[in-house]
Design brief:
Elements: H1 2-69, H2 78-84, H3 88-96, H4 102-120, E1 123-126, H5 130-137, E2 152-156, H6 183-190, E3 194-199, E4 211-212, E5 216-217, H7 233-240, E6 246-251, H8 257-263, E7 266-269, E8 298-303, H9 306-317, H10 320-326, H11 337-340, E9 347-350, H12 361-376, E10 380-383, H13 390-400, H14 406-412, H15 422-428, H16 432-445, H17 447-453, H18 460-484, E11 488-492, H19 501-504, H20 512-520, E12 524-531, H21 534-539, H22 549-558, E13 565-571, H23 577-591
Parallel strand pairs: 2-3, 2-6, 9-10, 9-11
Antiparallel strand pairs: 1-3, 4-5, 6-8, 7-8, 7-12, 11-13, 12-13
Helix pairs in contact: 1-4, 2-4, 4-5, 7-8, 9-23, 13-18, 13-20, 16-17
Length: 599
């Protein structure tokens, strides 16, 4: 009997121990979760403090600069307005001839930027050393003055400028000023240009919205409730508002061209390796710890006119040997004047639908009206029938998202994340098995959202296949091009005018019109040709929304976009920037785009 009692007591004791262990394990799990939440909250608190301190410093810097530029209580004097009324060509000529002083011109554009930025919020910071650089240029003899003599030039925030942060909207990079200038910044200075401000970007730059927790939201000068595009959105907005005539940005999926389209300015994404590649955060040539495979970001110029883009490109390309010595990635190919002045009419291919994302009526009209003008001017226009870039776009997405967000998640630790990247956040933070379920469910309402949610290649053996697809599809693209014997090809700059900021993050698939040419690697320019009309708005009722919820959102965000700029892309073969620029100038002369804005 006692033995049985001992057995029972032993079992009860074991159960109690097990229950105690279970309670302890549960307490440990709860403790771990609570501790982690407290740690994350502390990290976010420190991040907010860092951001607030940066904001206060910038506010003081901008305030002090504004005070120093005031003339009788005004930033924009009659003299400064007369300078702002000059074209880029006229301004450079007056500077070089000594009719205008470099310091006066610098202060004019600083004053204009401060004035428009109260509403626009395009400028992150002002490069205060620019004042000293302008003073030094005064002493240069006329015959020694470079092609950019005295011209204030705006710079995308991701570029390394000595003594200034390049945060790309991440608080972790606050207080880590660049130790040296990017090669292209040094080059601009050597041509006697004056980098004078840093312009806003979306957080991490993988978005075509333009906001981040450090510098805030940038508006579009044509309608402050719409995005200027991204990721070179601050550049485009500042140039469109008349506070800069020439700027430098970058492009990995349309980051030069989308903002140019949204704001009504000109830009060019060069061939990969045609101009400087180093000197930008997370770009090749800046010695990053991580670098995307199968696709490269490129530097490029943005301007109020095609002349400004050509000026920047021609200066760089005419110094290609110097660029090659400073950045081995640059091909030492000099400016090809026979391409820039072909002395003949062009054979132009065109399409309005890329086979993936339907364009809105205004963007279709932009292409067709331009074609009519080109044909009337004697150029030959041929439709690229059955055009379909959907497969190469899938390669682009696979390349951009090839790590399934692994490195983004590491970079985001402790950060306050912005709405501009909300779809990226949702996708990357969702566990793989849940993501698969989400992908299936999203496929029922949107194949375009499904593409973002699909698992992308992460193993080297899969990346080999992605790279092979890219190579094959690029060959097929050029085979068809060669059959048609095109000089250049034109297409919509984007499938719709500038959307509202909250919508941009949700319609990543609209980058099919731009991202494919980053995968192919060829030069693509963009030039504004028209603005959204009331008739375009009426025709939205015919826009195909069935079959994909993203199409419905595209129509919704385009409603009310009357007066917003619309651009077209000009696509060329590798290393034929000169011919692309020639075609852009031809189109610019024919369309006579209205640059006015509501700001």
């Amino acid at each position: 009997m006692e033995e049985k009692f001992e057995v029972v007591r032993s079992c009860v004791t074991d159960v109690c121990k097990t229950r105690n262990f279970g309670r302890k394990a549960a307490l440990l799990v709860v403790g771990f979760i609570v501790t982690k939440k407290i740690y994350n909250a502390c990290q976010k608190y420190k991040t907010r403090q860092r951001i607030n301190k940066k904001k206060q410093e910038l506010k003081e810097r901008k305030g002090n600069l504004a005070k120093s530029l005031m003339v009788e209580g005004s930033l924009l004097t009659e003299f400064r307005q007369s300078v702002l009324d000059l074209s880029l060509e006229e301004l450079l000529e007056k500077l070089k001839e000594g009719m205008l002083d470099p310091l006066d011109v610098l202060e004019t554009f600083q004053a204009k930027a401060l004035s428009v930025d109260e509403k626009l919020n395009a400028v992150c910071d002002y490069i205060l050393e620019a004042t000293e650089w302008a003073k030094q240029l005064r002493n240069l003899p006329k015959e020694e003055r470079g092609p950019l003599y005295g011209l204030p030039i705006s710079v995308k925030e991701c570029y390394l400028v000595k003594g200034y942060d390049a945060t790309i909207g991440l608080a972790r990079f606050i207080g880590q000023p660049a130790k040296d200038d990017a090669p292209i910044i040094k080059f601009i200075k050597s041509q006697h240009g004056i980098p004078f401000c840093l312009t806003n970007i979306p957080q991490t730059m993988i978005s075509y919205a333009c906001s981040n927790p450090i510098y805030g939201l940038t508006g579009n000068p044509h309608n402050l409730e719409r995005t200027p595009g991204g990721s070179s959105g601050g550049e485009a907005a500042l140039i469109a508002a008349g506070a800069s005539l020439l700027g430098i940005g970058g492009d990995i999926g349309g980051s030069l061209r989308i903002p140019a389209h949204c704001c009504g300015i000109a830009a060019l994404k060069p061939t990969t390796g045609r101009i400087y590649e180093g000197g930008r955060v997370f770009s090749q040539g800046s010695r990053p710890k991580i670098l995307r495979p199968c696709i490269s970001s490129v530097a490029g110029f943005m301007s109020s006119s095609v002349y400004g883009v050509r000026l920047g490109m021609e200066l760089c390309i005419n110094n290609s040997r110097r660029m090659n010595m400073e950045d081995h990635r640059v091909a030492p190919i000099q400016w090809q004047n026979d391409l820039y002045k072909p002395d003949r009419k062009l054979r132009i291919g065109w399409y309005t639908h890329d086979g993936y994302f339907p364009p809105t009526p205004g963007c279709i009209r932009a292409v067709r009206e331009t074609l009519e003008l080109l044909e009337a001017a004697g150029h030959e226009v041929i439709e690229w029938k059955n055009f379909d870039n959907s497969e190469i776009y899938k390669v682009f997405v696979a390349s951009i998202l090839s790590d399934n967000g692994h490195h983004s998640l590491k970079a985001w630790k402790g950060e306050i994340l912005d709405q501009a990247i909300e779809l990226n956040i949702l996708s990357f933070t969702t566990p793989g098995w849940i993501r698969w379920i989400h992908s299936f469910l999203m496929g029922l309402v949107s194949r375009k959202l499904q593409l973002v949610w699909d698992t992308h290649p992460t193993q080297s053996k899969d990346l080999w296949m992605t790279n092979a697809d890219k190579d094959r599809l690029t060959d097929e693209f050029y085979e068809e091009w060669d059959k048609q014997n095109f000089d250049i090809v034109i297409c919509p700059g984007f499938p719709f005018p500038a959307p509202k900021p909250t919508h941009a993050a949700r319609m990543i698939s609209a980058t099919s019109y731009t991202g494919v040419y980053n995968s192919i690697g060829c030069p693509v320019g963009i030039v504004p040709v028209t603005k959204e009309s009331s008739e375009d708005q009426e025709n939205l009722s015919e826009y195909p929304v069935r079959g994909d919820i993203i199409h419905r959102l595209a129509r919704h965000t385009t409603k009310g976009a009357t007066g917003m700029p619309i651009g077209i892309q000009v696509i060329g073969r590798h290393y034929q920037e000169e011919l692309v620029l020639h075609a852009m100038e031809v189109i610019e002369d024919l369309v006579k785009y209205d640059k006015s804005h509501s700001l």
